[in-house]
């Protein structure tokens, strides 16, 4: 069986499908004939995305910042084993670690770390050998470009460590775990981050061409279709003008 055909007809679960890298990943997986269950937090945006993705896409409405909503949604996941889980949803803040309200830090970790880990705990139990978990972290967790990125970077660094631990633990069951750490990707995430507008303009002067969401989605598909004896444990993707 070719590597690409291993995905055909199987079930993928992707979080954060209403925008950016998540939406591009859903499109890439559907084009490889996977069936996709996709998490979004906004009913209207998720309904619009579902219409766009078509009949092989099934929406799952859940705000990952809400632990009770997560418990309900994750309990009702389909019995069918998930062949590919992409933990993509995340929030970002751009704020001084001296001034960040503690409840904002808690929310950041709730969405970017706790929710993703809980989902792995539920889904991995039923995964079969050959299944794959791909976790989106960020290059800022390894090279901090500015102090105001520290809270977001801290959440991604925590997820990096947990992801590596999961890789070690799940390997004996034949389940692969990979981390994808992009640099600058042109998605709506930065429009949702208050106080980032001026910083973005400066960054764009240094790095005029950013990655596209499709660049990252293509890398996710590439990772998921390597021969089973090989795992891409960690992949960093940068626009060529981004130093690190
Ligand atoms: N863009 C970059 O430069 C970059 C760089 C490195 C790493 N990353 C990582 O790549 C991943 C995707 O980012 P992106 O740039 O594609 O961001 P994006 O366009 O903002 O997409 C994020 C997705 O996550 C969803 N989401 C956020 N909070 C959620 C919550 N509480 N519950 C459920 N869904 C939630 C968003 O829903 P809404 O549509 O409702 O907002 C959206 O669908 C993230 O893990 C991010 O940290 C991005």
* Radius of gyration over C-alpha positions, nearest whole angstrom: 17 Å
Which bin fits the share of residues in helices? 40-55%
Our count of helices gives 7
SSE succession: EHEHEHEHEHEHHE
Number of domains: 1
Categorize the overall geometry: globular
Structural class: alpha/beta
Furnish the topology, listing elements before pairings.
Layout: E1 11-15, H1 20-31, E2 35-40, H2 43-53, E3 57-61, H3 67-75, E4 84-87, H4 102-124, E5 132-136, H5 150-170, E6 176-182, H6 197-206, H7 213-224, E7 234-237
Parallel strand pairs: 1-2, 1-4, 2-3, 4-5, 5-6, 6-7
Helix pairs in contact: 1-7, 3-4, 4-5
Can you tell me about this structure?
- The chain is α/β, with parallel strands linked by helices and 244 residues long.
- It has a single domain, classed as 3-Layer(aba) Sandwich (Rossmann fold).
- The chain is 40% helix and 15% strand.
- The protein has seven helices and seven strands; from the N terminus they run βαβαβαβαβαβααβ.
- Helix 3 runs parallel beside helix 4 and helix 4 packs parallel to helix 5.
- It is globular and about 45 Å long.
- It starts with 10 loop residues before the first strand and ends in a 7-residue tail after the last strand.
- Bound molecules: NADP nicotinamide-adenine-dinucleotide phosphate.
- NADP nicotinamide-adenine-dinucleotide phosphate binds next to helix 1 and strand 2.
